[in-house]
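tmp note - CW15A protein
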Amino acid sequence: MTTATRLTFGSARGGQRRGEKDLSAITKQYSSRDLPSHTKLKYREHGQGTIEELRNRHFRKELEEREWIDKDKGSSRRAIEPSRESTASSAKRRKLDQVPFASLDALDDEESDSEDDTAALLAELQRIKKAGVAEQAKKVCNIIMITQ
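out:
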């Protein structure tokens, strides 16, 4: 028998014999991964929203100022836009009023065309079904003749 087949439990276990050290003893060696990292805290600098800055800010006043500025910008835009919209909307209304009379005849033609197309498609479908039935009948006849 070779030494490769021997169990190594005894030597892996370690012990108190000569040349063997106690594996449970505390060592003085340690890994760099055991060292603490990120040991310093970063504090907020001036201008990064510290508690003192937040206490001294007037949020309501800032909000009202921003709303007031936006209202002024919006009111100047709105004063210009309604005149454009009113002329555009009146022109659109005129066009919409004229469209139904002109398009009624066109709609009738389109409907009759679609009805004609539908009828043609249904007729084609019936022809295809008849051709399929005829082919199946021929196959059945051929199978019957072959089996007899």
